[in-house]
TrEMBL record:
This is Trehalose-6-phosphate synthase. It holds the Pfam family Glyco_transf_20. InterPro entries: Glyco_trans_20 (IPR001830). CDD domains: GT20_TPS. The lineage of its organism: Bacteria, Pseudomonadati, Pseudomonadota, Alphaproteobacteria, Rhodobacterales. It comes from the Bacteria.
Amino acid sequence: MSTEPRLIVVSNRLPLGDDPSGGLVVALEDALRSSGGVWVGFSGEVTDDPAPDLQDHPGAAFQRLSFDLTPQEHDEYYLGYSNSILWPLCHGRPNLMRIRPEYLDGYARVNQRIARMLLPVLRPDDRIWVQDYHLFPLAAELRALGVENPIGHFLHIPFPGPADCAALPNPAQLFDWLSHYDLLGFQAERDLGAFAESARQLADGDQVAPDRFRLSGRMVRTQVFPIGIDAAAFITEAADAPDSDRMRLLTGAKMMIGVDRLDYSKGIPQRFRAYQLLLEKIPDLHEKISFLQIAPPTRGEVEAYQDIREETEHLAGRINGQFATLNWTPIRFIHRPFPRPVLAGLYRQARIGLVTPLADGMNLVAKEYVAAQNPDDPGVLILSRFAGAAETMAEALIINPHDPHDLAVAMAQAMRMSQAERRDRHAALLEGVVDHDVAWWSRTYLEALTVR
Ligand code: ADP
């Protein structure tokens, strides 16, 4: 048995047993396996009797503590405060917030319930690692119950600057919640900067050292840990995917791919408009480029997600109507998730990977696209400057997604880029993706949490 202290991971959702494992799940399960511990999270079930359930993970190296949500909790904590207030706020869209007092009540209540169910399984030297924006108040709730263990938070999405934070009904409360953590982890320097500025302006935060903040009379450490992917697995899956030639012959065009949840933060309408501009300006590209956009809808109960679905479907239809020929469909727009090995094969076939969010914590698709390329004949990554990934992926074509001209020029440049330039850019990008993979991320975070 390991001599490391146990690890308690708390996340909004427990991974499903039959999930096609994402990189984050693999990394957190590896960390749990090596030190033992418990992964705590929502089961995905909405029921009237949400009792917690503690079970051994298959292999018994760690346990899983799952809980259901009542319909009211699901509305107020998950769809409400988390995804109709914090998500738009952190993605620079305060105008899309739906502020209702009952959302905050539900959010606080669920976090309190998680703290109470965690208490009996906690041991004095456990380390607790809280994931993401659904759980900001958890450390405060645990401290109120007398828990003194090291508690860290990692925010997977951007941190809002002072102008956006000020749109919260009670901005100081956010910083009070955060002050109970020992370590706050962010995706990018940009987020750490926004946190520092917002804490100073809205909560009298005092930066006492580059990585130390005094907040509500407590000391909190802050650090940037850019998350990565399971690069080795992706490289193998993409290389093992069936050969792409058949697909190229079928379409006779070079493929441009976008893979996103259908979310208003991802800049999908902006990239559709840029593609429309490209086809208007460069008729030579007709029938030589084909755009595959894969975007499964999420959070369909929230109105802003219904709106983005309508807008994107409308635009795709208009572009196809304007440019399609008897043997060419300019955009294929698919609302379905695909298993990871299929995605890896599609990325590898695509001459252009289009990652153009208006705001994004990191964006893992950018890293997956790079890992999936054939190093001898790689495709080109077009990356928004507003993705956290842009801080460490300078060899991509970095664009402003709000500017259709800038994006259309990058598409044209990628279409005609020489193989030598594509190889050079790809080699540099791949090195970063491999060196800073998701195992590196979780190891680095946990080392920092352990040094108090
Ligand atoms: P976000 O977490 O906001 O959705 P990221 O780009 O960081 O954005 O992560 C998205 C993850 O979801 C990636 O690992 C990507 O492969 C996966 N994904 C997105 N769309 C699909 C899809 N259609 N099928 C399967 N996986 C998908």
